[in-house]
Amino acid sequence: MGLIYKSRVLLIRFAKVFPFIICFLALISYTEDVYALIRENYMQFDDGYILYKPLSWNIAKLFVYDWYTIITATVLSFAFETCWYNKACVVYLCFNAWERDYFITIELYTEYIYAICIANILICSFFCYKGLRILTSSRKQ
Prior knowledge:
78% of the residues lie in helices and 6% in strands. By secondary structure, it is mainly α. The protein has one domain (3-140).
């Protein structure tokens, strides 16, 4: 097998799991949000307070989840004709990015933040499970 073939296979596998990897990073962030809320662990930032999330901040030093990342995931998802769950994960990531941009502009009660985080944890967990199943099934072939 040549280098071109191996590169193609690697790119296809990457396109299959890339949205699910981003979803896993979102899962880590939301889990850390709930943990910080439970412990009432806040940090003063500019004129307000934010949740203290050191793990998410360290991940953000290496990888930034933004609209460019979502566009890349969308292009890969449609270019390689991935499964329905992959495309649904990309749609969720678009909604999640919009949600994140919107919630920065308003203040929310703690109960609302809990509800939003738990709903996102459940959705991210589902997509991470599906992504793990896709990854393990493609390795067997």
